[in-house]
Write a structure and sequence with these properties.
The protein is of the alpha/beta class. It has helices spanning about 5-10, 70-85, 100-110, 150-165, 185-195, 205-210, 225-230, 245-255, 300-310, 315-330, 340-350; strands spanning about 10, 15, 20, 35-40, 45-50, 65-70, 90-95, 115-120, 125-130, 135-140, 170-175, 200, 220, 265-270, 275-280, 280-285, 350-355. Helix 2 crosses helix 9 (about 300-310) and helix 10 (about 315-330) crosses helix 11.
Length: about 350
């Protein structure tokens, strides 16, 4: 009989918001002026429909859908700005279709997010999400993305190099447009590291497998994506039940990926929580909630919570705790990267974290 995590793992005790673990972020975070740059290669206009008792093959009349001009880089930024609306050391940089340029510009200005876009001739893709609040299901329909020409990509590389300074944090997140090679993130991370920036990768498929070879500072795979990196060696189904043996197995296999450059791996497990893996720390965290509404963008909000504290040189424990609260808060409100600060504060007190190693 497998041992339940809540009884087997060593509990890290929180008392009135204070933690016992106080290790600081490594030296790459200096007190010099720095910024967070969130890279947007493949934006999407997310359209969210709410349909009760949704079933395939039926016809439905829907109310006005929710429309968000986003992409994972913007979802990340929205969540981070919710934590601190006056936080100005943040910029979204990437591509947007010319037809949607005004839509994106107005949306980001409204949310006080700095941005710089390279307009693309093609139309920005649109992703559809169907939320069933009764059956508690979420259905996704995803488009691939526009065509980026070589001249536009070269312009992107030049602008990014001019933008980055030493100790900046650069987030590479989201899918790669179909016209770009799967080694695009590898090339971008390699170039950015030459300028002394901290690099973070959050993608999937070949882009992740090739991108990790550039040794970013941090990666944030979910369980399926981690299994892709490990060439299927996890052999754990997505619907597995969390237990001590599973957490240890996942953690040990992930820890083998660490080196002098790749220092942190954040593994999101959906409603089952998340794992933080570092050389001398392995943490498992979980928040139990009811009434999840929309899971789109939860991973982006999770990363935003972690990076917000990471940027301020907080302890890894504080970073992980805020990440869990933000990722969970995102599920309580429709829209990618859309969360309420009061939900984050409430969930912080419900966060349970165990030390694994």
């Amino acid at each position: 009989m497998k041992k339940n995590v809540s009884f087997i793992l060593f509990v890290i005790v929180f008392v009135q918001g204070k933690c016992l673990f106080s290790e600081k972020i490594f030296n790459i975070m200096s007190t010099l002026k720095r910024k967070i740059i969130s890279i947007l290669l493949n934006p999407t206009v997310d359209v969210i429909y709410e349909i009760e008792h949704f079933k395939v093959g039926h016809t439905y009349q829907v109310r006005q859908p929710l429309i968000y001009p986003v992409g994972k880089a913007i979802s990340f930024s929205l969540a981070l700005k919710t934590l601190n609306p006056s936080f100005n050391d943040l910029r979204v940089f990437g591509f947007v279709g010319k037809e949607e340029l005004d839509l994106y510009s107005q949306f980001l200005k409204k949310n006080l997010i700095n941005f710089e876009f390279i307009p693309i001739k093609g139309k920005t893709r649109s992703n559809k999400t169907i939320i069933d609040p009764v059956e508690h299901t979420t259905t996704h329909i995803r488009e691939l993305g526009f065509i980026i020409e070589t001249t536009e990509l070269n312009q992107f590389f030049t602008s990014l190099n001019n933008m980055i300074q030493k100790n900046d944090v650069v987030i590479f997140t989201g899918s790669i447009p179909p016209s770009l090679n799967s080694d695009t993130y590898f090339n971008l991370i390699s170039e950015v590291k030459k300028r002394g920036a901290c690099t973070i990768l959050d993608t999937s498929g070949e882009g992740l497998i090739k991108g990790i070879a550039a040794n970013p500072t941090m990666i944030k795979p979910n369980l399926i994506e981690l299994n892709q990196i490990l060439n299927g060696s996890l052999a754990i189904k997505q619907d597995f039940t969390i237990n001590y043996e599973d957490i240890v197995k996942i953690s040990k296999l992930a820890k083998n990926l660490l080196n002098n450059e790749l220092e942190i791996i954040l593994i999101t497990l959906g409603e089952k929580g998340a794992i933080l893996v570092k050389n001398n720390i392995i943490l498992y965290g979980f928040i139990e909630i009811r009434g999840a509404i929309d899971t789109v963008g939860c991973g982006d909000a999770f990363l935003a919570g972690f990076i917000y504290n990471y940027f301020q040189e907080k302890s890894f424990l504080d970073c992980f705790k805020l990440a869990l609260a933000c990722g969970t808060a995102n599920a309580l409100t429709p829209g990618p990267g859309i969360l309420k600060k009061k939900d984050v504060d409430m969930l912080l007190s419900k966060t349970k974290i165990w030390r694994v190693n």
